[in-house]
Amino acid sequence: MSLQIISIILGSLTLASALLVVFSKHPVRSVIYLVVTFFFITSMYIMMNAQFLAIVNMIVYAGAIMVLFLFVLMLLNLNKEAEPVTTKGSQLAAFIAGGSLFLVLITALKDTLTLGQTYRAHNDQIGLVKQLGNLLFTKYLVAFEITSILFIAAMVGAILLAKREKQIIE
Fold this sequence. Notes:
Layout: H1 2-23, H2 27-47, H3 51-76, H4 88-109, H5 112-121, H6 129-137, H7 141-163
């Protein structure tokens, strides 16, 4: 029963910090809240006996990716004057992107109940790198490859934003 209470508390703290990421007005604070969210997710991985995922989440996401985010934020030097004005087209594009992300999440989560039941039967296999590798490179290969393309596109976008010429105001 105490494990269930700890899970509820960790889940609530994770949701609260994720909401702070979304609703924070300052981008650097938003990145720091995201680091806190990753720490809570890491602790949930540890509770699920997925130590490899916990360590990877801590090192890769809370470490390297967050440093990259902070570097890009400081490189772009965002301020109120430089923010673009949102138009109806950009709002429509954001709505379509959010809707497609929602559909991807729904399709990814539709098999979670059956996967959870099959893994409960093999309790000794939970959290092992071999099982994770088998799932990543068999069932989720397409999603894994699409994620790598997304990362490359994000790097190209960051480089293009960094290389753009500054407008000289006379």
